[in-house]
């Protein structure tokens, strides 16, 4: 029971803390559609299983013990975030048509939204640290595999639930209609956030 309570508490605090996942879901929900935001949230939840998988296979211990390997993974994730951010920073008014325009796209492609969420989480060093620390420090070594998989399902489900709520909020008609007037500025703001996250992570990786 203590193990379960620790999993629930730590996961809840980690999920709601701002980061690249939040920025991506918010941006896709606002600038594309509720469906795009929800699929981004689903991609994030699926990305969590990448971290859970390698942690349960023992790779998580290797990552924690190998400074060089962890720094390399951190740098890879940082470069991906910077790449995403630069793409958003380069957005222009004609790249994001008004929602009522005759030729405006209804939503971002389903696969693209799902992939964005998956890669943002799977390559997020913050999530690597969180999952590895959670399973290696909170979960006991004698805990059955089925229980560990259940913990993984909870962590993934918590991400899905929280970011689905974020998608719902940012895709509300009244909120979305007002904010879309500044859609290019918003896209660039989210881009700057991702570049900032990536730069901090890259600097941290290179200092190791």
UniProtKB/TrEMBL annotation:
GO molecular function: amino acid transmembrane transporter activity
Cellular compartment(s): Cell membrane
Protein keywords: Cell membrane, Membrane, Transmembrane, Transmembrane helix
Topology term for the membrane: Multi-pass membrane protein
Main location: membrane
One Pfam family from the record: LysE
GO cellular component: plasma membrane
TM stretches of this protein: none
Protein's UniProt name: Translocator protein, LysE family
Source organism (scientific name): Lysobacter enzymogenes
Lineage, opening ranks: Bacteria, Pseudomonadati, Pseudomonadota, Gammaproteobacteria, Lysobacterales
């Amino acid at each position: 029971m203590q193990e379960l309570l620790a999993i629930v508490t730590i996961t809840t605090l980690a999920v709601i803390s701002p980061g690249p996942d939040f920025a991506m879901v918010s941006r896709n929900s606002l600038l594309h559609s509720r469906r795009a935001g929800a699929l981004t949230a689903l991609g994030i939840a699926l990305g969590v299983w990448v971290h859970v998988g390698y942690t349960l296979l023992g790779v998580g211990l290797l990552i924690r013990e190998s400074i060089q390997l962890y720094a390399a993974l951190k740098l890879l994730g940082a470069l991906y975030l910077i790449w995403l951010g630069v793409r958003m920073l380069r957005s222009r008014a004609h790249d994001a048509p008004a929602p009522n325009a005759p030729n405006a796209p209804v939503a971002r492609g389903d696969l693209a939204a799902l992939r964005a969420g998956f890669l943002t989480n799977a390559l997020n060093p913050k999530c690597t640290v969180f999952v590895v620390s959670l399973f290696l420090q909170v979960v006991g070594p004698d805990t059955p595999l089925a229980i560990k998989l259940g913990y993984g399902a909870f962590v993934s489900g918590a991400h899905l639930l929280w970011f689905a709520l974020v998608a719902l909020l940012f895709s509300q008609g009244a909120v979305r209609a007002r904010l879309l007037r500044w859609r290019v500025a918003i896209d660039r703001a989210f881009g700057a956030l991702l570049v900032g996250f990536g730069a901090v992570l890259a600097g941290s990786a290179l200092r190791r």
